[in-house]
Amino acid sequence: DLSSEKLGSAGTIREMSFGTTNENMIVVEHCANSKAVTVLVRGGNKMIVDEAKRSLHDAMCVVRNLIVNNNVVYGGAAAEISCSIAVEKAADQVSSIEQYAMRSFARALDVIPMTLAENSGLPPIETLSYVKSQQIKQGISSLGVDCMDTGINDMKEQFVFDPLISKRQQFLLATQLVKMILKIDDVIVHRNDEQ
Question: For the chain, which ranges sit under pLDDT 70?
């Protein structure tokens, strides 16, 4: 009862051998209406292979997020710096104790560009200070950390973008984590007060 209609068809089917161990792999190519892709990842050791797999997974997640919501923000921590400036301005308008929480949130946002600068081999404090002052002075929210050392801090010109859905999720998760820690801390403080 096997027929070509039930099995499908392929342009070529071949066996490939590769590597020093002569491992074999069957390759099926030129299939009609196929949307499947296979990526063969090889490396010198397991750590390199795992890192390559993680990088591929991250890249596919970015593509998925852009398909779900194609809105983007400027990368290079430009969005975090802009948010930090906006939160600091809003904190200036608050006269209650909440302003301290707002300022702490703004400082937490500043950690992201500082970490990005440090991982790029740039001086973190000087880089953040320069980019932040330029954003305030020029009023351009696309200025971020120049990780590639091109001399241009404008992420729009460098075509560096982050998916908005990812950025929003990062902020929400970080805020929820802080709330959970504060609640736990509050519970522990009350228990100590009772004793």
Answer: 185-195
